[in-house]
């Protein structure tokens, strides 16, 4: 199943660039995301979701790490944060937590760090290898104190799609995976704007659209009902992408 998914990803390379352009290709969309429930169930049953994604050596990094999705949110609010070098940026952590948090870049940098060189696989059909650094999402959630009712983690972003913030979600298995981090650095430098500054999610066992950029809020919820149209993410709600995009 995983090899079949990789083949389908590679087959999309001839499509127009950009995840939003795939939405204009209904035949490709049906092929790529046919049988979502069957794929999700089988992949979870047949794969070890606690296994680590492959990691690479520094010399294997791509010379240029191209951006996926939005290149710049372009909003007045984001422009102000960017102009201040994100000194005023705060990441809210709330929802079903005992201790809501408001974290700046210095706070993220003060937490135990993980650095990993991994491959980003985009649904557009390209891949790139880069070094990411940041705290584990699981450590942040532990600091906030997840309540027993929490089942999913929802990410809200600064970039807008259809006038509304981009959003994505993962379950607690992926949230506490050791390679799931809140990355503030790429290749030993602060994240460039095109790659999601000041902070983005890296959930290495899933496709690129799950790696939410320009993070503004992390929310613990008990259900995906009421999040967008209820399927857990912008592309899932609007273009029938898989919610669990494991690779």
Quick rundown:
Residues 85-220 form the Oxidoreductase molybdopterin-binding domain. This protein has helices at residues 2-11, 19-22, 26-32, 36-46, 76-83, 105-110, 137-144, 172-175, 234-239; strands at residues 91-95, 101-103, 113-121, 127-135, 152-161, 164-171, 181-183, 185-186, 189-190, 200-202, 215-221.
What is the tally of helical segments? 9
Question: By helix and strand content, what is the structural category?
Answer: alpha+beta
Are there runs of 5+ residues with pLDDT below 50, and where?
1-18, 20-24, 29-37
Mean pLDDT: 87
The top-level CATH class is Alpha Beta
What would you call the shape? globular
E-strand count: 11
CATH fold category name:
Sulfite Oxidase, Chain A, domain 2
CATH architectural name = Alpha-Beta Complex
Q: What is the count of distinct domains?
A: 1
- Helix content range: 25-40%
CATH superfamily: Oxidoreductase, molybdopterin-binding domain
Tell me the Rg in angstroms. 17 Å
Query: Main beta sheet: strand number and arrangement?
Result: 5 strands, mixed
The strands making up the biggest β-sheet line up spatially as 2-1-11-5-6
Q: Note the beta-strand portion.
A: 15-25%
- The end-to-end span amounts to 9 Å
User: What's the multimeric state?
Assistant: single chain
